[in-house]
Design brief:
12 helices, two-stranded antiparallel sheet, 44% helix, seven-stranded mixed β-sheet, alpha+beta
Length: 326
């Protein structure tokens, strides 16, 4: 089933207005949810929307709250999100980082006490489409096992890097687990096994069963010990820069709310576009394995976007009807 992009966005906005979201905030949040599905990240678009509504109803997300700048130190600012909607806070913080970069060449905004930003790539695209290099990361509740450990102690702390490009930005949006929990959910819904082990079951055994990993909340870090170290350092940076909650504190609370995030922008008038194209051409010249193709990060997202704008956005019908009934 496909739904026109504009209809999807308007349904999200209607529901948010009914939850006491101010007009501009409802518009921004609805647009981000719709864009996520438009670009093929359905797990953080329509499919996540009912969960987001539930968090609003539980008081984990405050629809009327506004982020506040607590401290300015040259290129670096520290903000408090006051538990406002995560995608709203994140888009404002990236916009501020872009503004700082346009003024001074670089900007960094760290925010504490915010909420899930949904698709992290949204803010890499935001920076790249503004002509900036964007780097952003967030911490989460513990759902990744540190290398050498048996229980989850690390967050699946996503890292996003966006680079502007005339033919379409290069945007890396990667979870620190081998599979994001959204991807695990997709495999589980389709009753498919993972191509390679993605985590541990409750008995501590590596498994390709997505449902068992979601049940144990023990994802496997990318690159084994390397991903483990990267997740830890991202959490250290986020907590030190924002003065906010670490993965440990988020986990102790029992709810993935009040997380910490960081948004960095670099403005460089001359990015040597010809050198970027040379890198992409060389990478894509590798002979593909049978049935596969070499893509750069963000390439498939742009193709999916164009297809879904032309044909309508694919929706899971039961979730779509659930949203329409809200």
């Amino acid at each position: 089933m496909r739904v026109p992009y504009q209809q999807l966005q308007q349904e999200f906005k209607r529901v948010l207005l009914g939850l006491s979201f101010p007009e501009d905030k409802a518009e921004r949040c609805a647009t981000i949810f719709a864009q996520n599905s438009r670009d093929g990240v359905y797990t953080h678009g329509l499919n996540r929307f009912p969960t987001f509504v539930g968090h609003v109803l539980k008081g984990l997300v405050d629809p009327e709250a506004e982020p506040e700048c607590l401290e300015r130190n040259g290129l670096v600012e520290r903000w408090d999100g006051h538990l406002a909607p995560g995608m709203y806070n994140a888009s404002l913080c990236m916009a501020r980082a872009i503004e700082l970069a346009e003024q001074q060449g670089m900007g960094c905004v760290a925010i504490r006490n915010t909420n899930h930003w949904m698709r992290g790539g949204t803010y890499g695209w935001q920076a790249a489409e503004a002509g900036c290099i964007g780097i952003c990361f967030t911490n989460t509740i513990a759902n990744v096992t540190p290398w050498g450990g048996t229980d989850a102690r690390l967050g699946n702390n996503p890292l996003v890097i966006g680079v502007p490009r005339a033919e379409g930005p290069i945007v890396l949006d990667m979870a620190i687990s081998q599979y994001s929990y959204g991807k695990l959910s997709s495999y589980s819904t389709d009753h498919e096994q993972l191509p390679v082990p993605g985590g541990y079951d409750n008995e501590g055994k590596l498994t390709t069963d997505p449902a068992k990993i979601m049940e144990s909340q023990r994802g496997l870090p990318i690159g084994f010990w390397k991903g483990s170290g990267l997740s830890l350092l991202l959490d250290v940076l986020l907590t030190a820069l924002s003065g906010g909650r670490s993965t440990a504190e988020i986990t102790k609370s029992g709810q993935e709310s009040g997380v910490s995030q960081c948004f960095i922008c670099i403005k460089q008038p001359h990015l040597h576009a010809e050198l970027i194209e040379e890198i992409l051409r060389y990478t894509k010249s590798s002979p593909p394995v049978p049935g596969e193709e070499v893509f750069y990060p963000g390439e498939k997202s742009l193709a999916t976007r164009n297809e879904n704008l032309a044909q309508g956005v694919p929706v899971q019908e039961d979730i779509w009807q659930q949203v329409v009934a809200l």
